Amino acid sequence: xxxxxxxAGPTGLALGIDLARRGVDALVVERADGLFPGSRGKGVQPxxxxxxxxxxxxxxxxxxxxxxxxxxxxxxxxxxxxxPMFDPVPADExxxxxxxxxxxxxxxxxxxxxxxxxxxxxxxxxxxxxGLRQDTEGVTVDLADGTALRAAYVVAADGGxxxxxxxxxxxxxxxxVDPASFLVADVQVKGLDRDHWHMFRGAGETGLAxxxxxxxxxxxxxxxxxxGTAPEQTLDGVRSLVAxxxxxxxxxxxxxxxxxxxxxxxxLADRFRxxxxxxxxxxxxxxxxxxxxxxxxxxxxxxxxxWKLGAVLRGGAPETLLDTYEEExxxxxxxxxxxxTAVHRGQVRRGAxxxxxxxxxxxxxxxxxxxTAPAGLRAGDRAxxxxxxGTRLFDVFRGPHWTLLGASVPGVRSLPSAPESYGPxxxxxxxxxYVGWAGETTGGLTEYASRVGALTAP
Length: 458
Description:
This protein is of the alpha+beta class. It has helices at 10-21, 46-55, 58-64, 105-118, 163-168, 235-245, 294-314, 323-344, 393-397, 445-451; strands spanning 3-6, 26-30, 43-44, 66-67, 71-75, 78-83, 101-102, 123-125, 129-134, 139-143, 148-151, 153-156, 172-173, 181-189, 197-201, 207-212, 219-225, 253-262, 267-269, 273-274, 277-279, 285-286, 368-369, 387-388, 391-392, 403-405, 413-415, 426-429, 435-439. The longest helix is centred in the C-terminal third of the chain and has 22 residues, at 323-344.
């Protein structure tokens, strides 16, 4: 096969979708017997909504989710007042999605899995990877049942304790963000409205929150507990916490679907590529959950990597194109790690800084700016939405192809002009929605397009 993806989380499933629509033979293997059952990564940032639009799942994601409710702080059984969770970010024609969307991670994965299956993709559950070895032609992956699989490339999307990363000997550098113990759980609770994210403060820096999960009857419980605390991860344990921190009694918690304890930490893999093996998602970077950056950064890893694997395997691009995955995504992950830590520590507000619309690749070797005095949009920037002759750009961008604005080149989908918001020039838009090349004319464009595998008609 072409690509073996280890891990059926949001990263692996999103990558599987992108490869399936490119005609790349890929298989996703997952150690568990089914999809992840919890709500952990419940926030879908606006930039990830654009990615989901491109992958053809945004309508389902939006239908299954909803907006974040305002937070409501309680003290001694009395509400003190509500406030928005996020500073507002104004929408315009170029940025149609500016509000984070709440949807429990298990539902996001169900939608991605359904889309992957519809495209002919496959997930093999109950397949645990134990090791691998690679050569100049491919990678052999060993499984716990004694069998092995062979692929030209392997992508590790198997989480923060990645077996593949450890088998490669790649280190991960990070820090403890918070020494306290944290607990997250999906519970059923009576006695609270579903219009607010309910916050209850305890002694010192401890506290408990209950957030109604959009599209479900559940609440997500989040608790910050004293350092060294190890609460019982059972229904009775959750009932005790709710009774201790809130005005509700223990019997108000009527059910427990999923629970997990953790200590917030960061981690950044020393390398994102070792030969024919690439690291993505939590296998490459681990975030504090504050600000909803982890799942989103991970899905965008998949968005960045998918078109590059497709270009190498199907578009005639040189294998060195894959080096730009580490070049672009490791730098991005490092920046987002700093952001999520700052949000956790209360140094940065949720809003414009966390929607991820400003992330880009201006310093990348793939970003070629040929204009002498570029104004506004530049190579490496996110390509905004807009309209050309009544046609919406995001509708034109959707799919595995490149798009040329302002000129026409054989083998590349083209529109005769770009919106005024882009400024003057000719713009070649990458499949992941960033400006790859910009020039005053098409001079030099064909050479660039050949180098990145863009000259393949959809």
